Automatic annotation (TrEMBL):
It holds the Pfam family Usp. It comes from the Bacteria. Belongs to the universal stress protein A family. This is Nucleotide-binding universal stress UspA family protein. Residues 1-136, 146-282 form the UspA domain. Gene3D superfamilies: HUPs. It comes from Microbacterium lacticum. Coiled coil: none annotated.
Length: 282
């Protein structure tokens, strides 16, 4: 069984948070760490080789400094480093094929920090062969709970299993969220819906959530599970709930070599405005 957590490391402050998050998980689950730094942007111009070599040397020095700190703080966690030249998205997606988990940082600093961002993170999460954890550049200490979005799909089932295992490991409650959105059309955006329709949508979504959670109590008998069924738009509802959470987990669908870079609007919107540390699970 692969027990490697791969961490994409850059010189940005968010990378330090990503390394710290990965280290805590590796120590708790007896996993190993691989720190990967990528020098990108090479064009093959004359004289570029020396520039790339210098950048690789600086990247290795940065990775070695992280590794030395890890060995001092958690000597039981094996750690290795790897510096490469290439496209960061391609390198990390390829690394994910040999990893149990891929962890990357985001420079997003929360509400009010400008427009949504994270094109590289979205592409990495969409193409990775393992779950991807994206760590924002703000402090999440003191938060509680693991929030997971459930929609009845296979992808959300995998997300639920990942979230339940993390909640159980962390001793946190699991907050399972299912969201239903009323039917919309260009001419009925302000429509008044029949009460029977709204009641049936709520009941159907509650049933979907109950079915998804049916086996969790058996697998994790001590896990506290909170069920939330809400009306609204999924990424907004899940994001709002996850703003006070320690971890958010969402599922995504693998759809082939080309379309895999289309992560899906819900997951993509959540990654664009990270409410907390967020895992994307295929």
């Amino acid at each position: 069984m692969n027990d490697t957590i791969t961490v994409g490391v850059t010189g940005a402050p968010a990378a330090d948070r990503a390394v710290d998050w990965a280290l805590a998980r590796a120590a708790a689950r007896s996993q190993r760490l691989e720190l990967v730094g990528v020098v990108g942007g090479a064009l093959g111009t004359i004289g570029e080789d020396a520039v790339v070599d210098d950048a690789l040397a600086a990247t290795r020095a940065m990775l070695d400094a992280h590794a030395e700190r890890i060995r001092a703080e958690a000597p039981s966690v094996p750690v290795s480093v790897r510096a490469e030249a290439g496209n960061p998205v391609h390198v990390l997606i390829e690394a994910s094929t040999r990893s149990a988990l891929l962890v990357i940082g985001s420079d997003y600093r929360g509400p009010g920090d400008g427009p949504a961002r994270g094109a590289h993170g979205v592409r990495i999460a969409a193409g990775a062969a393992c779950p991807v954890v994206v760590v924002p550049d703000f402090d999440t200490s003191g938060r509680s709970g693991v929030v997971v979005g459930i929609d009845g799909s296979d992808a959300s089932e995998h997300a639920l299993r990942f979230a339940a295992a993390e909640a159980d490991r962390l001793g946190e409650p699991l907050v399972a969220v299912s969201v239903w959105t009323p039917l919309t059309a260009p001419r009925n955006t302000l429509a008044v819906y029949p009460e029977l329709y709204l009641t049936n949508m709520q009941a159907a979504t509650e049933e979907t959530l109950a079915l998804a959670l049916a086996g969790i109590a058996t697998d994790y008998p001590d896990l506290v599970v909170e069920r939330r069924v809400e009306r609204g738009y999924p990424s907004q509802v899940i994001g709002d709930i996850a703003h006070d959470a320690r971890l958010a987990v969402v599922g995504t669908h693998g759809r082939g070599a080309l379309a895999r870079f289309l992560l899906g609007s819900i997951s993509q919107e959540i990654l664009g405005r990270l409410p907390t540390v967020t895992a994307v699970v295929r």
